[in-house]
Amino acid sequence: MTPNPINVMLVDDHAVVRMGFRMLLQGTPNIRICAEAEDGESALRLCAQGLPDVLVIDLTMPGIGGLEAISRLHSKYPELRILVLSAHEDTIHPRRALKAGAFGYLTKRSAAEELIQAITHIAAGQMYVQATLAQRMMVQQLAPEQHPVDILSAREFEVFVALAKGGSVNGIAETLHLSPRTVGTHLYNIKQKLKASNQADLTIMALRAGLIDP
User: Fold this and answer.
1) Which pTM does this prediction carry?
2) What is the rounded CA–CA span in Å between residue 189 and residue 149?
3) 166 Rama sector, left if φ>0, alpha if ψ -120 to 50, beta otherwise
4) How many angstroms from the chain centroid is the CA of residue 209?
5) Can you tell me the mean pLDDT for 159-179?
6) What is the pLDDT of residues 102-161, one digit of tens each?
7) Which of 59, 75, 97, 116 is 20 to 30 Å from 86 at the Cα level?
8) How many other β-carbons are positioned within 10 Å of the β-carbon of residue 34?
9) Long-range contact list for 1-7, CB < 8 A, 24+ apart?
10) ∠ CA(14), CA(18), CA(24), 5° rounding?
11) Beta bridge partner(s), residue 54
């Protein structure tokens, strides 16, 4: 008896990236691409029409962003299995993603075989984190101190990273589909929480945390 295929939804704002993963996964026995979305809002709308077995999502996307999308999806559909497939290779992004409700985390440098393995594990209800990241996260858990950026909300964290990369208030507002005033409010709150004086301080913090490349 042939097992039912694992229905997978791909969520990434780059159509070429989705096409690459679709071509990879469609050639895999027992995995079927049931839907695709270009951002978090679209993923939420599609999930309202029917849940996939596994939702594979990027973190850096326009609109509500990956972390906020994961949080909303997990809140509305706690049974949904979410796998993050991201370019971020630090340990803060995976910790935040798992805390928001993701079942697994892979970087986009992972081998194709590992992506298939992760989807299979998560569809079976098992968590899956890329081995190198899992090891680093475990080591960091032994340190008692909390990283300063851990106190930021999901939206504040996304604004923080964008600011640290040199983004302007207006540019970030356009990318995240927010008003410049809202981004300005987030900036004020971020600086207060992190005790930062200016955008340069935020960049230094992000560099030290490994959130952006030097």
Assistant:
1) 0.79
2) 12
3) left
4) 17
5) 89
6) 999 999 888 889 999 999 999 999 999 998 888 888 776 666 556 778 888 888 988 998
7) 75
8) 16
9) 3/30, 5/30, 5/31, 5/32, 6/30, 6/31, 6/32, 6/53, 6/54, 6/119, 6/120, 6/123, 7/32, 7/34, 7/52, 7/53, 7/54
10) 150
11) 8, 81
Could you tell me which CATH class the domain 148-209 is placed in? mainly alpha
3-state secondary structure the chain: CCCCCEEEEEECCCHHHHHHHHHHHHCCCCEEEEEEECCHHHHHHHHHHCCCCEEEECCCCCCCHHHHHHHHHHHHCCCCEEEEEECCCCCHHHHHHHHHCCCEEEECCCCHHHHHHHHHHHHCCCCEECHHHHHHHHHHHCCCCCCHHHHCCHHHHHHHHHHHCCCCHHHHHHHHCCCHHHHHHHHHHHHHHHCCCCHHHHHHHHHHHCCCCC
Domains of the chain, by residue range, sit at: 6-141, 148-209
CATH of domain 6-141: 3.40.50.2300
Q: What is the pLDDT of residues 29-75, one digit of tens each?
A: 899 999 999 999 999 999 999 999 999 999 988 888 899 999 999 99
**Which sign does the torsion angle of CA 92, 161, 105, 42 carry?**
positive
List Cα–Cα distances, 16 to 12, 74, 178, in angstroms.
9, 27, 26
Q: Which amino acid is at 141?
A: Q
